[in-house]
Specification:
Oligomer: single chain
Shape: elongated
Mean pLDDT: 82
Order of helices and strands: HHH
Helix content: over 70%
Structural class: mainly alpha
């Protein structure tokens, strides 16, 4: 599996989980596990029959999607928080 394929898989998982979030199918606190499950599914679809590779690649995809999404979200929330305080001064 190439790096480009992994990056595309992470982007797809982020998109799927964002859709689930907007449909309110799960509480926000469980979306991390949804990321991992979708990552494992992507790992299965991309790797094939090797269980060890499926788990490793799936966890990499799922955890990357969860971390990338929360990192971007936290960055924008912090920026908004800082802008609000700058407007007060």
């Amino acid at each position: 599996m190439t790096e480009l394929t992994m990056a595309v898989a992470v982007a797809i998982v982020i998109g799927l989980v964002e859709g689930i979030k907007r449909l309110n199918l799960f509480e926000t606190k469980w979306l991390f596990l949804v990321d991992v499950v979708f990552g494992l599914g992507a790992g299965y679809l991309m790797v094939g029959n090797n269980p060890r590779e499926i788990i490793i690649q799936g966890l990499i995809i799922g955890l990357s999607a969860a971390g990338l999404f929360s990192g971007i979200k936290n960055t924008f929330e912090e920026k908004t928080r800082v802008e609000k305080y700058e407007d007060i001064d």
